[in-house]
Amino acid sequence: MKIAVDAMGGDLAPQAIVEGVIQASSELPSEARIVLIGRESVIWDLFNQHNFTPTNVDVVHAEDVIEMGEHPTKALSQKPNSSIGVGFKLLKEKEVDIFCSAGNTGAMHVGALFSIKAIEGILRPAIAGFVPQVDGGYSIMLDIGANADCKPEVLAQFGEIGSIFAQYTFQIERPRVALMNIGEEEQKGSLTSQATYPLLKQNKRINFIGNIEGKDLFTNKADVIVTDGFTGNILFKLGESLYEISKKRGFQDDFIDQTNYESIGGSSIIGVNGNVMIAHGVSSPLAIRNMIGWAYKQVKSKAYLHILQALS
């Protein structure tokens, strides 16, 4: 198994990325290798600074960097030799099993659509975020930012592909799928929510349990939380704020610790022909280390192949 990581993407790159890779390399199972993509001389300088001799890390040179503020489509076409461009080339050619980056989120999403492409039948690929639950487990919420506006049929499909992803990632036989709304009753919510509810309810391939509200986000009511990318992004970032607030106020709690973005380190793009993980722009070494751990689990789950099979 080869886990590709963009060394140059992120506000704290390349130092934080390389440090995270060094930490992860000592924990990875023997069947896995990390492929670090970026400016080779810079990466090796950092290896030497940490007295690190890579035994399960390969370095692939990429001269260019897509900066955080660049236009995604333009940057990818103008910088094919960027770390993100090279990463997607390796993924498309099946030289690596997953590509992870803390770089330009738009470039990661567009890069996935242009290279490995959406699975046939997928209306809109989504970014799925891992939401910690008070019982210690996780739910997934999709979308958390790729699609700010969604039609009912897109949200209904999120329920189905999210269910398959949760089934194989979390080993849950019948994941509970819920629609995020402003009330539990079927007729509640926006016109889009009201039109989405019956589509989810009629789908016999999923275990739809109805609407949930914002207060249910962390309380283990659902394994899959369906929402548009606008609402999902706001909820997800609100959740992430809990850790920083509690730290500033001087108290520690095991559940609150799980809301720290570093605890998972990345979010998956679901609905494309391959494995892609997007990390937080401010990713620390710990976040990168944890993202690589989850990347290993994602490859092992073969979730995207199960989604492909379900839609074929």
From TrEMBL:
> Its annotated pathway?
Lipid metabolism; phospholipid metabolism
Q: What class of enzyme is it?
A: transferase
The reply to whether Acetylation figures as a keyword in the UniProt entry is no
Coiled-coil positions: none
Q: EC?
A: 2.3.1.274
Where does the UniProt entry say this protein principally localizes? cytoplasm
* InterPro entries associated with the record: FA_synthesis (IPR003664), Phospholipid_synth_PlsX-like (IPR012281)
Keywords, in A-Z order: Acyltransferase, Cytoplasm, Lipid biosynthesis, Lipid metabolism, Phospholipid biosynthesis, Phospholipid metabolism, Transferase
Q: Does the keyword Glycoprotein apply?
A: no
Q: Where in the cell is it found?
A: Cytoplasm
Gene3D superfamilies linked: Isopropylmalate Dehydrogenase
Q: Name the reaction it catalyses.
A: a fatty acyl-[ACP] + phosphate = an acyl phosphate + holo-[ACP]
One GO MF annotation is: phosphate:acyl-[acyl carrier protein] acyltransferase activity
Query: Tell me, how does this one assemble?
Result: Homodimer. Probably interacts with PlsY.
- Task of the protein: Catalyzes the reversible formation of acyl-phosphate (acyl-PO(4)) from acyl-[acyl-carrier-protein] (acyl-ACP). This enzyme utilizes acyl-ACP as fatty acyl donor, but not acyl-CoA.
Q: Which PANTHER family match?
A: FATTY ACID/PHOSPHOLIPID SYNTHESIS PROTEIN PLSX, PHOSPHATE ACYLTRANSFERASE
Family according to the record = Belongs to the PlsX family.
- HAMAP family of this UniProt entry? PlsX
What this protein is called in its record is: Phosphate acyltransferase
Species of origin reads Dyadobacter linearis
Taxonomic lineage per UniProt?
Bacteria, Pseudomonadati, Bacteroidota, Cytophagia, Cytophagales
